[in-house]
Amino acid sequence: MTDRQNDTTQWLPVVAVGLATFIVVTAEMLPIGLLTPIAEALNTTAGKAGLMISLPALLAAFFAPLVVLASGGIDRRKILCGLLAMLVLSNLASAMATGIVTMLAARVLVGFCIGGIWAIAGGLAVRLVPAHSLGLANAIIFGGVAAASVLGVPFGAWVGDAFGWRAAFVAVAALSAVVLAMHWAVLPKLPSARGSQMQQLRAQLSNRALMAGLLLTLLLVTGHFMLFTFVRPMLQQMAGFGASAIGVLLLAYGVAGIAGNFFAGMVAPRCSACMLLAIALGLVLVPLAFFAFGDSERGGAAALLLWGLAYGGVSVGLMTWIIQSAPRAVEIAAAMNITIFNAGIALGSWLGGRMVDHAGLHANLWLAEGILLAALLLTAAMAYVALQRRSQTQAGVVSKA
């Protein structure tokens, strides 16, 4: 086998896992771009329609560690394929929903798929590529999040505007079937990795660096989804955009997100704390930007691009910190991060829904700003401790020499 064939064999599974994260995030976030028409069709409020995001995210938070702990020695390839098959069915069920109750019932299955797929995919890079390729592999796998913003969510919004929101769910079901076929064809056997046991979970609860990373995940994701769940109403009611512009704007947001993802993927392995500090600062500036000049189309678009660039690096930046904090328990640490990540999505979209329904979009911006500011302060403390430890390590090496 040639070196080029070896490279292809090595990277095709990575691309397949990246497509799995892409399609599951697309399915998870699809209602965001269609929130207004779905709420109108199902005769419910925007806040209640936001449960289409918070409910599956909450269930994903519960299922992520459960999948790792309960799956035993089952081949991870088989688990991923089974979850992708469920994703096909859940999106078809969403397309046939006749009311908010039946829609939320379909989204329960989406939550199971989100938790399971992310729990397995989040720590797979270390099993698919050598150590020197981890930065790029993680960027590709977590690039599925940003790519979902670039292609998935705007595509869903476009299909929904052109053919109806039900057609958008059918389209995601079809794409999920394609990704399932690719997984079955190119993924190698992936037996259970050592360390995904209950004792490993208990041991990590005393890992201070990991616990700090998990708290940061909760703060960043909660603050982001308080706002992003209602990005369409913000762009239409605050910046004055028409409905036809939403798909293009989300596309631009996603392009900025992909740039942020790959930049963070390359930088984070060298200094994950520094990267997280830059990301937190960028997200703190987003609500301020909407307050300062988000009442115009040009200002709203500029704030959205800053938002995409900053949030694009969140997943890979956080996961790099998590993996570096627990190198001997990557799979269980990744599952813990996915749990907190999805808890943040659920909490953020729920809090945002309450604020938007009872106090309005501006009040929601203020509360999210407070949460993101707390995340920035925590990140600064984490960066300080990490840099102090690095200096002490370097000083120890010099003294020994």
From TrEMBL:
Annotated keywords: Cell membrane, Membrane, Transmembrane, Transmembrane helix
Residues spanning the membrane: 12-39, 51-72, 79-102, 108-129, 136-159, 165-187, 208-231, 243-264, 276-294, 300-322, 334-353, 365-387
Gene3D superfamilies named in the record: MFS general substrate transporter like domains
GO cellular component terms, A-Z: plasma membrane
Stretches assigned to coiled coil: none
Limits of the Major facilitator superfamily (MFS) profile domain: 13-392
InterPro entries, per database record: MFS (IPR011701), MFS_dom (IPR020846), MFS_Efflux_Transporters (IPR050189), MFS_trans_sf (IPR036259)
MF GO annotations: transmembrane transporter activity
Pfam families (alphabetical): MFS_1
Main location, first listed in the record: membrane
Record carries keyword Membrane: yes
Protein's membrane topology: Multi-pass membrane protein
Subcellular location: Cell membrane
PANTHER family tied to this protein: CHLORAMPHENICOL EFFLUX PUMP RV0191, PURINE EFFLUX PUMP PBUE
Name this protein carries in UniProt: MFS transporter
